[in-house]
User: Fold this.
Amino acid sequence: MRRLDSHVHISLNAESSTLADGELLCRLLDEVEQLNILNIVLEKPENLPRNAISLLLKLRFPGRVYSFGGIVMPRGRGREEDYVRQVELLGRAGFDGVKLFGKPSVRASRPIPFDDPVYDGMYGTLQNSGTPVNFHIGDPPEFWDRDRVPAFAWKNGWYYGEGEYPSMETLLGEIVHVLEKFPRLKLLVPHMMFLSQDLERLRGLLERFPTLLTDITPGRELYFQLSENREKARAFFLRYHGRILFGTDNAVCVQRKDSLEQCRETLSAVERFLETEDRFQAWGGELAGLGLPGEVLGDLYGDNFRRWVGEEPARPQGGSAMEYCGWLRELAARQGCAPAERELTLVMEKMAELAGTE
Ligand SMILES: [Zn+2]
Assistant:
């Protein structure tokens, strides 16, 4: 079956993302038909190349790469009109949607609620232009619990039980408020909204906001949750298959030799879970597959995404894509991030070469 992985990233390492990371990520096009690259940028200059690399990859793999551009966040609260301008710039440069990122750690380091009026212009522009938004909100409930927080989360600084972290309720409350203000916003909150342990609540939100979507991107914990309540989970998927997208969170970087191998393992675990009724070992535990029927899988594997975003990926236009990359490079230079500046120069050169050969 043709598959569109709606949730992948160009490297998730602390160092600057490189074009080589992006090229390696596109090797996954041997496994799936299409990729949607989500770019998390925030206020970190080393993340700036991600948006530019995605535009170049879209040009290199026409028809096969979608991408959601990341919003560059200012240090402070920022200005409403600057967020609006960025949404417009991303659209003109050739992105298919916008990626926003609301992990509790991010929200703690930048304590501006996601329903703050400073973002109203941005949400309004996204809603009125029909731009799809993928907005990560929160994290698994056990990340707030000292006794249950997984080792990898602890290591990454994702334990939220102590310190100034917002609760999951606070974060969910903010996003519900955003949807109340902008009820036609084409919003996807990934990882089953971290509500796999409370499908009733997720059902309530999907019923209340008809344009709201989610995805089955691991969050490994959600696979264990759904496996434990397999019958309920299966019924949920049979009822809401029009609202759930397939994704893996696959990310590669050239420094990690096993990254492609790990991506393939994730892909096959997710597929086996969705397609078969097997009980099998994955990620250190046992999963119980849902064995979903063909038309449900068709929706998850791409039909929902194409209805949401478009039949074909947007094609970056030489001039405005280049102009946008130039703006990113200027930002990197102003913040003294030499690796990002270098990478952006490289991407712009490759983009110019491509334009020259057309
Ligand atoms: Zn992700």
